[in-house]
Amino acid sequence: MIVVGNNEYRLILLDTNIIRTIVNGFDPNHPDHGIAKKILNYYGENFMLCVSAYSLLEINPFQDINDTFIGIFTVLPILIFLDFRTIFKEEELAYQENREFLTGNVAYYCKPSTNDVLIFIQKQFSPEKIREELEESCNYWNEMKLHVPKNPSVKNEYLQKIKLTPRHLYSYLIMEYSCISRLCNKKPMILNDVVDIKISAIAPYVDVVITENSQAHIYKEASKLISKLKDVRILTLGELKKQIDR
After folding, report:
1. Where are the domains of the chain?
2. Are the C-beta atoms of 94 and 25 separated by less than 8 Å?
């Protein structure tokens, strides 16, 4: 939830694949018929779409996707979440100060009918720095995978260790769960996996997450261990389309 002016908005987190779907299905001649608008129409005026800066990195090299994204969210409001370290810091401060987690401290609000999205990308977004961070994480975790036996008991051992993490660190818990789920399978990690892991940090603090099938499964499984995720609605693209096309 975020407060903008006198209004409270509940949040719908879109992952990179959903952003691509929104962009690919956008017709500038009929902007009110696009998927982004359909999502907002379905959920109501007290909801706002949000994305992670990590998703902006993934679409950044594709000029047509990037330009269309900017065009859509020059018309519609959007919230852009900052890096996972900023989220960790706010989460810890909120705990220490015995207060609510303040979404406005970890995100950049882009007003409709402005150039806020473009300004964020130009002034507060460093794709080279973020890509370097993601590549380092990818290499490190793939090195770890070489030493992790691929069997269910090992995954269960790792998941038991999650229970030792302080329970108020929801963002850390879900990132840890997302990472362990990938360390314990046979596929090598790619940058998309690392992005999904780092995007997951904000999932406990939104109301709806729309993501691809494998990450949706991870969120649903993680909610059995992480109480803050229990109230978050997790949807795949297929489930979303069934809802908004009724």
Report:
1. 2-244
2. no
